[in-house]
Design goal:
By secondary structure, this protein is an alpha+beta fold. The protein is built from 24 helices and twelve strands. Bound molecules: protoporphyrin IX containing FE. This is Cytochrome P450 E-class, group I.
């Protein structure tokens, strides 16, 4: 090495650049590298220090400069080769899209720095059309046929690299191994049978009634209700109970639980950094002391402890059956409780996030729309008149109520752009384009729901398009708020029952309107896409019906 450094610079630096090109063409061009990111980071840092020390001990006149020039030459070779390849030789080179997006996902990180991926994609659709290259190995395709192609019964697509974001945490929704997923899904399905659902219903009713009482209490005091707080308090309390057998007690305390706060703050990272899962790996392994990583790990530790307590309570007299009951029961029956502990921890966090961060924004937006459409609110109240809202079956028959929920999920999807899939090795035809293997496919619900080709007056909230005006849905194939196929939402029935009940309970009990000068500007303006939708504040007035 010392001898190498004595080579004339005219030879040394071009040689380093050539090494950069070679490492790209011989190594990095093949396969996935995001999981190796921490190792590469350490290797690169160690080599840089090593070069510096060699230069220093070989009496180089300026060891810092020598190291800098050598590493820069290598990087120049490496990144020039990557850029030229991705722009002019890559399998996706003929797809339209921003040139910088084709070179690096950092382009996307920058675009999403305010958590507005749903708007970034919408802007690209206007500029480039419905098939866009949004990354070196990524296509965003806005077409009603895509959900079925990538998730339908015949699909051979798998989950894309994004799902490795949280490794080493493992959970049903993040596992990329199809066989492993299917095995775990069978266990989950036991927690969502009709019998299991009956156990959950009464607790949903109980929490919803507490929510209504709190709202009534505040409205009696003449205070506004921030829907974006209260619906989250409600859903997190419900899901906390389903995951750990105990809620976060936010409806009681009327404030955010610190663990939920940490969780939501950590989820905020998914806004800008979803595009670069390798960076999350570097952060987890190289900088675990960083505040945001500490937040996440702190929250995971808290969940792990709660799961420990939940396991200790399992089978005790009076213990109620929650989602975790079924997961623990399965591990016990197989004698694998200890081995499955990581799964149980990860799956409990999944119950909390997947069950809360989706229902809450849908409820917030449903009430926003019901407030903007007071006549429809009144009509819905009329349809609910005389219906036993505690009877799940009866409630499901109220078409307009289901229409309200579906229309809200179309226009304000809880998962606006997420749900990335990867094409199988041999490639796949998607929406008329041949897509090679190993490519990430994004099928954004936000843009699909706003497509005039699929919906008449697409930007308007018209629940009747799902009931009496079916002609307003020109092509409903793209409407998959809960996804479909093997990775579809396991909690769909629970979610629909829960949303129907909460809306019915509150609409029959209160007249809901804007509070003061509120018109929903913050709700929509501060909406962030961080895999799930995170809305801004919305202050509403809930007037108890029959009172002035
Ligand atoms: C409005 C409510 C909800 C919506 C819109 C929704 C939507 C979705 C979507 C789009 C997916 C697919 C995600 C992906 O492809 O990565 C999904 C998966 C999932 N959801 Fe939901 N969800 C809701 C409520 C719930 C509830 C209440 C639970 C119950 C705990 C739940 C649990 C899950 C789980 C575990 C998965 C992963 C399934 C798998 O990979 O096999 N969700 N959900």
């Amino acid at each position: 090495m010392g001898l190498l450094l004595e080579l004339p610079s005219a030879v040394l630096y071009p040689a380093a650049a050539l090494l950069g090109v070679t490492s790209h063409l011989a190594l990095f061009i093949r396969g996935e590298w995001h999981m190796q990111a921490p190792t590469l980071f350490w290797l690169y840092s160690s080599l840089t220090i090593f070069i510096y020390l060699i230069s220093f001990y070989n009496d180089q006149p300026n060891p810092f400069q020598a190291t800098f020039l050598l590493t820069t030459s290598y990087n120049l070779g490496l990144f020039s080769s990557i850029s030229i390849y991705r722009l002019y030789f890559h399998r996706l080179r003929s797809f339209p899209g921003p040139k910088l997006a084709a070179i690096t996902k950092f382009w996307h990180v920058w675009q999403c720095r305010y958590g507005k991926n749903h708007l970034v994609i919408e802007g690209l659709r206007v500029q480039y059309g419905s098939v866009i290259r949004t990354g070196p190995e990524e296509l965003t395709i806005i077409d009603p046929s895509v959900p079925n192609t990538i998730d339908g019964p015949k699909s051979t697509c798998t989950k894309a690299v994004w799902y490795d974001f949280l490794l080493p945490e493992i959970a049903l929704n993040t596992t990329r191994d199809v066989h492993e997923h299917d095995q775990r899904r069978k266990v989950w399905d036991k927690g969502f049978t009709s019998a299991a659902m009956r156990d959950y219903e009464t607790r949903v009713h109980h929490h919803a009634e507490v929510l209504a009482e709190r709202i009534e209490g505040l409205s009696r005091q003449g205070k506004p209700i921030n829907a974006s707080d209260w619906f989250y308090f409600f859903t997190f309390d419900v899901m906390g109970e389903f995951a750990f057998g105990q809620g976060f007690e936010m409806l009681q305390s009327q404030k955010w639980h610190w663990a939920v706060r940490l969780l939501r703050r950590a989820m905020g990272l998914l806004g800008p950094f979803s595009a670069v899962p390798w960076l999350a790996q570097v952060a987890f392994y190289v900088t675990p002391w960083m505040w945001i990583v500490r937040d996440w790990l702190g929250m995971m530790e808290w969940c792990k402890e709660r799961m420990g307590e939940r396991i200790a309570r399992h089978g005790k007299v009076g213990a109620r059956r929650d989602v975790s009951h079924w997961l623990i029961e399965e591990s016990l029956s197989r004698g694998t409780l200890k081995k499955d502990r990581e799964w149980l921890n990860g799956d409990a966090v999944t119950v909390v996030i997947a069950g809360s961060d989706t229902i809450a924004p849908t409820l917030v937006f449903a009430f926003y729309e019901l407030v903007r459409n007071r006549e429809l609110q009144e009509r819905l109240r009329g349809k609910l008149d005389g219906v036993d809202i505690y009877d799940k079956g009866e409630l499901a028959k109220v078409g307009l109520l289901t229409g309200v929920i579906k229309e809200t999920m179309r226009l304000w999807p809880a998962v606006p752009t997420g749900g990335y899939r990867q094409t199988p090795e041999g490639g796949l035809e998607i929406a008329g384009s041949w897509v090679p293997g190993g490519v990430t496919i994004v099928s954004p619900r936000w843009s699909m729901g706003r497509s005039e080709e699929a919906y008449e007056r697409a930007l308007e909230w018209v629940p009747e398009r799902w009931t009496t005006r079916p002609e307003m849905v020109r092509d409903g194939r793209g409407f998959q708020p809960f996804s479909q196929g093997r990775f579809n939402c396991v909690g769909k029935a629970l979610a629909m029952a829960e949303m129907r009940f909460v809306i019915a309970l509150l609409v029959t009990r209160f007249d809901v309107g804007y509070w003061g000068k509120e018109r929903g500007e913050r709700l929509v303006g501060e909406l962030r896409d961080q895999f799930t939708a995170s809305p801004g504040a919305l202050e509403l007035e809930f007037k108890l019906r029959g009172r002035a």
